[in-house]
Amino acid sequence: MSLERFINQHASSWMSGTGPHSDVVLSTRVRLARNLDEVCFPTVFQFDDAKKIVKQVNDAVSEKLSLELLKMEDLSPLQKRVLVEKHLISPLLAESSLYGAAFISEQEDISIMVNEEDHLRIQCLSSGLKLQETLDEANKIDNVIEESVQYAFDEKRGYLTGCPTNVGTGLRASVMIHLPALVLTRQMNRIIPAISQLGLVVRGIYGEGSEALGNIFQISNQLTLGKSETDIIEDLGSVVHELMSREQSARDALVKTSKLQLEDRIFRSYGILANSRIIETNEAFQCLSNVRLGIDLGYIQHISKSILNELMILTQPGFLQQYAGGPLRAEERDIRRAALIRERLSMQETN
User: Fold this and answer.
1) 265 is in an annotated binding site
2) Binding residue per annotation — 121?
3) Where are the membrane-spanning stretches (predicted)?
4) Potential cystine with 168: which of 71, 99, 147, 224 (Cβ 3.0-4.6 Å)?
């Protein structure tokens, strides 16, 4: 494995679109926040502490897990941006130029972020809706690391973390879900506040502070204290299944009452993607969302969902500039984005 592989590979294995309920759920992510005992948390620790933590984690995983170590200090801002766009590191870790690191698996379904908000963020990703399976995988990695290090743990409070909302299990589970019909029927504005009342949070495609590009939302638990891992997973799964049911009902209603308008929207979007010479990120994601809906409804049969997942990564600003070999102005990115989409769709049609 190499840095170039992680940077240049278009889409990670968890973006394959082959998991359960992948017509609505793109991916499942489970993240465990952990800190080492008797070491200052990242907000106040020293550079020597940071280097020591990276070494301890490397010693813990090197023999039992096949992971590549990437140090943030060795990466350019553009390379780090690409890793953020692929959901392999967080924007916060990307900002760490001296003491941050990440251990990433070849399939890019495992990422252990080191010296972010906490000493460790163990992240596992899966295609489709696989909450329990993804949690089990994260716990296996957690157990491997805990064989070599002592975690900061309190008998009453649980795992101690940098942010109070992660104290307890340290578990943040999230599901990336595509809800175009609920957006089209203007139901999301009512649904989001209701979800928040259940102790869950709705964010955009890149988590906190990001927008829901292409009608893609992240649904995750907000608190970890006072709930078991099982409770968190079950509560999130219950809400996601309800959203899936409502999305399907909304799709059925659109097909029943506005079939011609829906088909027109889908095929116009495909025409834009297949023929545009300039296209901005928001428009590209909206069109990709519409085409994906058309594939799920059976209107478009010659394009695979995996290609759309790939394009959602490839058309991001970081990836476009990485392929260009350096910085691009906004208009230059829009031109390259349009050309890349045309090329990929043309290749798919030929196949």
Assistant:
1) no
2) yes
3) none
4) 224
CB–CB of 168/225 below 8 Å? Answer: yes
The answer on whether 289 is annotated among ligand-binding residues is: no
Domains of the chain (ranges; CATH) run: 4-168 (3.30.590.10), 255-350 (no CATH)
Q: What are the CA-CA distances from residue 185 to residues 217, 218, 249, 285 (Å)?
A: 16, 19, 11, 18
| pTM (two decimals) | 0.89
What ranges make up the beta strands (E) of the chain?
A: 25-34, 67-71, 101-105, 110-114, 120-127, 153-154, 158-159, 171-178, 200-203, 216-221
Annotated binding residue 159: no
Q: CB-hemisphere CA count at 13 Å for 103?
A: 25
Q: How confident is the model at residue 351 (pLDDT cuts 50, 70, 90)?
A: low
29 is in an annotated binding site: yes
Tokens of 47: 């550079």
- Angstrom distance (rounded) from CA 4 to CA 132: 32
Q: Is 207 within any annotated ligand binding site?
A: yes
Q: 45 is written with which tokens?
A: 């620790």
The answer to whether 31 is a known ligand-binding residue is yes
Q: Do the annotations mark residue 329 as ligand-binding? A: no
172 labeled binding residue: yes
Q: Per-residue pLDDT tens for 154-201?
A: 988 989 988 888 889 999 999 999 999 999 999 998 999 999 888 899
